[in-house]
Amino acid sequence: MLVIALDPPFGPSGEYSGLKIVEETSAYAVSYKVGLPLVLESGPEVIRAIKETSGKRVIVDFKLADIGDIMVRVLRKLAESGANAVIAHGFVGVGDGVEKLVEEARMLGVDVILVTAMSHRGSRKYLDKHFEELLADALELGVHGVVVPATRPWLIERARKAVKDELKIYAPGVGVQGAEPGSALCAGADYEIVGRYIVRSPDPGKIAREVYEAQLRSVRTCRG
Amino acid sequence: MLVIALDPPFGPSGEYSGLKIVEETSAYAVSYKVGLPLVLESGPEVIRAIKETSGKRVIVDFKLADIGDIMVRVLRKLAESGANAVIAHGFVGVGDGVEKLVEEARMLGVDVILVTAMSHRGSRKYLDKHFEELLADALELGVHGVVVPATRPWLIERARKAVKDELKIYAPGVGVQGAEPGSALCAGADYEIVGRYIVRSPDPGKIAREVYEAQLRSVRTCRG
Question: B128 is in which domain, residue-wise?
Fold first, then answer.
C-alpha cells in the first residue's frame, strides 16, 4: 500500500544516500518511485540498484508529456534500465501521443500509470477540468493505473467509481503535502505515495514503519 | 532562426555521435535542443559539451510537467550542467506549479519556454482547448518564449497576435512532421525547430545548410 518517492535530498540535510533509505524502508514499501531529480544525479543505473537493494518494483515518474515517438524512446531506455512502470500525462492525448507509449510498454512488459489530476493548486486551472475524460482515456487504453492526489480525496472517490477494479489508483500528497496516511486508501486508492515525510527524516526506517502501521489502522477502521 | 533538435539516433542508422552533428551544423543553428532521450543516454554533461562544441545556446526540452518543487530541483541540476533554457508545460498551471519554475529560473539566469500546443494529433483533445489561456499565462509569467507547432501555422498566427513582440515563438514540426522550412517563420514564429530531417540524414551539415537557406528564401519572400 506504501510507495516511497525517492526524491532527493535524503535525510534532514541531504546526508543520506538514496540506497540507504531503500535499505531501511524496504520492509514497508511495495514499490519505489524515482523521478528526474534522482535520475539526473545518479544516472538511470540507479533504477536497477534500487530494485536489487529492495527486491521491490520501481516506478519511474518523469511525468512524460511529449509526442509518442519521444516517449517511446525514453521508455525503451528506462525498460533497459529495469523500470517496472512509468508515469505519463494523459492530457498529451491519443493520436501519435500516449497510445504509442502504451503499445510499446505492453510489448516491453512495463506498466503505464497516467496522471489524471495533480496535488498542487495549479492542477485546478487545466487538468482538473478534464478529470473524468482522462479517467475514461486511461480505461480505454487499458493502462495499469492512474494518479489521483491524496490531498483531494473526493477525486479518489470519483476515480474509484469510474474505474471500478480495472485500474490501480496511486495517490501522492501524503505527509508533507497534507494528507494523513491511510486517508487516500480509505477514499479508494490502492497505493499511497509518500516522499519527503519519510526520505528527509533522520530515521526513514522508523517513519516508514509508522506510516505503514497508520495505513493498516486506517484501513481496518474504514473497511471494517 | 534554426534550432536543431538533437534527438537520437544520429545518422541514417545511428552511426554518428551527437557531437558530430553539432560540429557539422553549428554554422546554421542559433541553438540546439536536447531532450530526455539524449540526456538519459549521455548524461547531463552532454549539455555543456554541445555548448562548447558549437558556441551556441542549449535548450533542454524535458517538457517538464510536475509540481513546482520537483521542477525547481530538475532546473537547478540542468542550470549547473549549462542549460540556457528549459521547456515546460504551461498546463501544469500556476499555484505551486509553473510559477515556481519561472521564479527560480529567473534567479539562475535560465530562460523558460512554455508549451502552449503540440504538433501531434493528440494535442487537439486537451491542450488545444486551452491555447489562448496558456498564451495568456505565458505573458503574465513573463517567460522567454512559447512553443507553437509549425504543423498548424494558424496557431502561430494567433500566438503572434496574442504575444506581440513580448515572447519568442518556437515552432517544432518542420521537416519529417510535415511543415516546410520557413513556413512557420512566415506565419510569425521566431525559430523553427528541426530534428530528424537533419540529424538522421547521411549529411547533416548539408541538410542544415539547405534548411537554413530555404528559411532565408521564405522569409525574404513573405516579409518582402
Answer: 2-223
Q: Do A67 and B120 touch (CB under 8 A)?
A: yes
pLDDT band of residue A223 (cuts 50, 70, 90) is confident
**pTM (2 decimals)?**
0.97
The CATH number of the domain where A33 resides is what?
3.20.20.70
- Give the ipTM: 0.96
CA distances for B13 relative to A11, A70, A209, B199, B202, angstroms: 45, 17, 51, 11, 9
User: Active site residue: A20, A51, A56, A63, which one?
Assistant: A63
- Determine the pLDDT at residue B131: 98
Digit-coded pLDDT (tens) for A57-103: 999 999 999 999 999 999 999 999 999 999 999 999 999 999 999 99
Of the candidates B37, B65, B125, the beta carbon closest to that of A65 is on: B65
Write out chain A residues lying below 8 Å of B46, CB-based.
Answer: none
- Is the four-CA dihedral B27, B32, B37, B42 of positive or negative sign? positive
pLDDT averaged over chain B?
A: 96
A63 is catalytic: yes
User: Which residue of the set B20, B33, B56, B63 is catalytic?
Assistant: B63
Domain count of the fold of chain B? 1
Residue-wise pLDDT for B148-161, tens only, equals 999 999 999 999 99
Q: Hey, how many other C-beta atoms are within 10 angstroms of the C-beta on A119?
A: 23
**Could you tell me the three cell numbers for A8?**
532527493
